[in-house]
From TrEMBL:
GO terms for cellular component: 90S preribosome; small-subunit processome. Residues 340-418 form the BING4 C-terminal domain. GO terms for biological process: maturation of SSU-rRNA from tricistronic rRNA transcript (SSU-rRNA, 5.8S rRNA, LSU-rRNA). This is U3 small nucleolar RNA-associated protein 7. It comes from Paragonimus westermani.
Length: 540
């Protein structure tokens, strides 16, 4: 409801009445904005019987016209094609083996640019905005704007196979055929880190959205995790007995899906990398994997695209599905892929699958072009406009870029444990054990100190040396007990041996014998302060 115009009212009475009405409308709008957070929309899903198969035609017959336009196919020559969505889910970019590179608004079908670079393109990735697109070419990585103009050509990045972008760190991560991982800072244009893996060709790579860790898959069946500040892998997992075809990490950073040439799909808990949560036997080895915002897992194998809603058996399944599960250990379940959440058959083999953010859409890159199919319940229905806004304009995009640059996280802060300010339980237990030992009266272990001979008459006897040792050891023990109990002012006090060392060091600094004589007289002179000293100060 809009506010009333109070200027056109003839009398003051009606004008005041309209102003009160406008005030109530404003208060109601503010109240509705406050409680809008509690009225969030839940994600939808498909409910079907056991063994029922739902096709795209069935879904299109039940949705509205606006949602039906999101299902389309674009036939292109010179495949295979790979694609990528922007972070707000509004734009899509693709590139092919023949050199075709394009980006467009897939909702309005408005083309941003379309060019042909003349050579094979391995991968395409949006940067922090949809106005910058990075393309992996044979001899370099090129960055294009939304007009198709090449604004950067990074020749240091050679033979790149896969690209990943870390939005909070402004890092473009690329894996090369020579086994190197390159971290490029997009704000300065410099390569901040180069990590050699010594694991051969890096054709399988993904990023952990939760902490920014890069995961790579290798031909020996292992998955390694890398940090830009470390030159060796922080975690190495042996997942399969054959070479990996693709890996994917979910939004929360907890689950990892791996697929290899042995036709097995395994779901791992990254927090515990010893045994997989689930192992699924596939009819054909999957060549591409992708997680959605709601945890759905899409896999493409040949011409078949299948979506799983319970890859790690976290959701409720039917009794017939549970009967097909064969228990390996207490935490691992083995089953045969059947009765998937959604399945689709493409005309050409699938090379890349990607879920669109904030839209129930699954993008497919095939040998014959790109396709978009509907996948209900895959996207997050409630988006944060301060994080990503699909309906952002030019002004908002400029402000968002400045805000992100101010909130940029240094690459040195990327770690496996991304929680800041967490209390270490080990330190608390160690400190408590020390206090407990002190309070219970357990003897504090103190080493016997070494005492130098005091070259004075009668001071170098064995009894005098032993007494000095006992005094120093007693002072050490009391200092250790007070510091363990947390007595204030203990850190300022020092044992006698430290004071003696400081005096000896101060005396050795004096070179002239006259200075040494003066200091000796000052140390030997001890005056007794009394009330007369305060009334009548002594002359120096």
């Amino acid at each position: 409801m809009s506010a009333m115009d109070t200027v056109s009212f003839p009398t003051r009475f009606h004008r005041k009445r309209a102003e009160r009405f406008n005030k109530k409308i404003k208060q109601a709008q503010q109240h509705a904005a406050k409680v809008a957070v509690f009225g969030t929309v839940s994600a939808g899903s498909l409910l079907k019987e056991d063994g029922e198969r739902i096709t795209q035609n069935d879904i299109l017959s039940e949705v509205d016209i606006g949602s039906a336009t999101k299902r389309f196919d674009i036939t292109l020559p010179g495949g295979p094609y790979v694609l990528d969505y922007s972070r707000n889910g509004r734009y899509i970019a693709y590139c092919g083996k023949s050199g075709n590179v394009a980006a467009f608004d897939w909702l309005t079908k408005k083309l941003l640019f379309e060019i042909n670079v003349g050579h094979e393109c391995k991968d395409v990735k949006f940067l922090h905005q949809e106005t910058f697109v990075s393309v992996a070419e044979p001899n370099s990585v090129s960055i294009y704007d939304n007009q198709g103009l090449e604004i950067h050509c990074l020749k240091q990045l050679n033979q790149i196979l896969r690209l990943e972008f870390l939005p909070y760190h402004f890092l473009l991560v690329s894996s090369a055929a020579n086994g190197f991982i390159y971290y490029l800072d997009c704000t300065t244009g410099c390569i901040v880190s180069t990590v050699p893996t010594y694991m051969g060709r890096l054709g399988v790579m993904c990023s952990n959205p939760a902490n920014g860790v890069i995961l790579t898959g290798h031909n020996n069946g292992s998955v390694t995790m890398w940090l830009p500040s470390e030159k060796c892998a922080v975690i190495k997992m042996f997942t399969h007995h054959n070479g990996l075809t693709d890996i994917a990490c979910d939004k929360t950073g907890m689950y990892l899906a791996t697929c290899a040439l042995d036709r097995k799909l395994k779901i791992w808990d990254i927090r515990s990398t010893y045994d997989p949560l689930s192992e699924i036997r596939l009819p054909l080895s999957a060549t591409c994997l992708a997680y959605s915002q709601q945890g759905l897992l899409a896999l493409g194998a040949g011409n078949t695209i299948q979506v799983l809603n319970d890859p790690h058996l976290g959701l409720a399944v039917s009794e017939s599905e549970l009967l097909r599960c064969e228990t390996i250990t207490d935490s691992v379940n083995r089953r045969v892929l059947s009765n998937t959440y959604l399945s689709h058959y493409a005309v050409r083999p699938v090379c890349r699958v990607r879920f669109c953010p904030y839209e129930d859409v699954l993008g497919l890159g095939t040998n014959g072009g790109i396709s978009s199919i509907l996948c209900p319940g895959s996207a997050e229905p409630n988006y944060d406009a301060l994080e990503e806004n699909p309906f952002a304009g030019k002004r908002y995009r400029q402000e968002r870029e400045v805000r992100r640059l101010l909130d940029k996280v240094p690459y040195t802060m990327i770690s496996l444990n991304s929680v800041v300010g967490k209390v270490r339980r080990e330190d608390i237990l160690e400190e408590w054990e020390k206090k407990k030992a002190t309070l219970l009266g357990e003897p504090v272990k103190v080493e016997m100190p070494k005492v130098r001979k005091n070259k004075q008459k009668g001071r170098s006897k064995a009894s005098m040396i032993e007494s000095r040792k006992q005094n120093i050891r007693f002072e050490r023990k009391m200092f250790t007990i007070k510091s363990a109990l947390g007595v204030p002012g203990v850190t300022d006090s020092q044992p006698r041996e430290k004071l003696e060392k400081s005096k000896n060091q101060a005396s050795t600094k004096l070179k002239k014998p006259s200075e040494a004589l003066i200091t000796k007289k000052k140390l030997a002179k001890k005056r007794l302060h009394s009330a007369l000293d305060v009334l009548i100060p002594a002359k120096e």
